[in-house]
Amino acid sequence: xxxxxxxxxxxxxxxxxxxxxxxxxxxxxxxxxxxxxxxxxxxxxxxxxxxxxxxxxxxxxxxxxxxxxxxxxxxxxxxxxxxxxxxxxxxxxxxxxxxxxxxxxxxxxxxxxxxxxxxxxxxxxxxxxxxxxxxxxxxxxxxxxxxxxxxxxxxxxxxxxxxxxxxxxxxxxxxxxxxxxxxxxxxxxxxxxxxxxxxxxxxxxxxxxxxxxxxxxxxxxxxxxxxxxxxxxxxxxxxxxxxxxxxxxxxxxxxxxxxxxxxxxxxxxxxxxxxxxxxxxxxxxxxxxxxxxxxxxxxxxxxxxxxxxxxxxxxxxxxxxxxxxxxxxxxxxxxxxxxxxxxxxxxxxxxxxxxxxxxxxxxxxxxxxxxxxxxxxxxxxxxxxxxxxxxxxxxxxxxxxxxxxxxxxxxxxxx
Length: 415
Known about the structure:
The chain is mainly β. The chain has a domain at 302-415: Lipocalin (Beta Barrel), CATH 2.40.128. It is 8% helix and 45% strand. The chain has 2 helices and 33 strands. The protein has helices at residues 22-30, 54-76; strands at 5-6, 83-87, 90-94, 100-106, 108-113, 116-121, 124-128, 134-147, 150-156, 170-176, 182-186, 199-202, 205-208, 213-214, 220-221, 229-233, 236-240, 246-252, 254-259, 262-267, 278-282, 288-301, 304-309, 332-336, 343-347, 349-354, 357-362, 365-369, 375-381, 383-384, 392-396, 399-403, 409-414. The strands form 7 sheets. It has an 8-stranded mixed β-sheet with strand order 1-19-20-21-22-23-24-25, with no helix packed on it. The chain has a 7-stranded antiparallel β-sheet with strand order 5-6-7-8-9-10-11, with no helix packed on it. Strand 30 and strand 31 form a beta hairpin.
């Protein structure tokens, strides 16, 4: 689909949509992918009491100091990382060693975010904590992940009973806090996105955490990333900062989020090829630092970004590399911040790097390359995700498991 627009994020499929209207873009945002677990559990504080003897009084300050140090160490300990697993058709969670932490018992389960995991039962969703305690009951027709203390939900009202899984009537949608309290209510079908930098994108612009509209210099916006957000005025896209004022004037046919100081933007092609957008990168001043010469371009991660070049691209030395492969022009590679292509286009698709590995598609199988372009985990998976917290989630047929950075299974694929 061609035309002007902005992209919220990319689903696990091969093709992302560019140049979409707001309703379609936000619908993509609603199909949220696997989130990051970011909030640490609070450690218990050290207790105190009165010493009842001279010796106890003498030991008191030392014990108190040791208790403070012990408490500080406990607070510094990272939380146990949990990963969704499926076994015998039921979903639960394992830790980073592959040990079951929450027994498989749910219809579906998603990644933890801010200490809460989204789970489903009888077509309704709720939230559990890391101990498996159901802290928000199964009551939503749909629920996303927590972001800045709030989660997107569809409030549920099913006239035909909760066991008819395909029927999910709702009374509206909005945001809930970690107690399950509805803090923002929106109309049914209203597009909405996760909060970032204190605001969330919805139809017609932004809302704050009080649910009230936040005005900005633009007619349509996207989420904040690296302190900036892409907005549309008329047919062109620019960027606002957190003051909601334009800092990069609208001048691009399409725009994506900033990452590592750069953002992918598109310009229209020449003449009759006007609808064939050409992608490049700008810095935060709005200066084009990598020319708009790619057929598609993703965000930067770990100094590299996946791109779909034209037939003629520059190699790492800056010289014309010509036709780099039989599939060049239809294949993906990686560009660095200098605009060179150190990982030549040879993949049917490529995703952002994470933890030193980039996920790539070769034929119909997915694998992982390192930052030099060396294939370190052979493409043998039917589905895969970016590495997170030391593990990569992979699929073989209908079964899913987890591998470490060497490709060794920590959880054998199950279904």
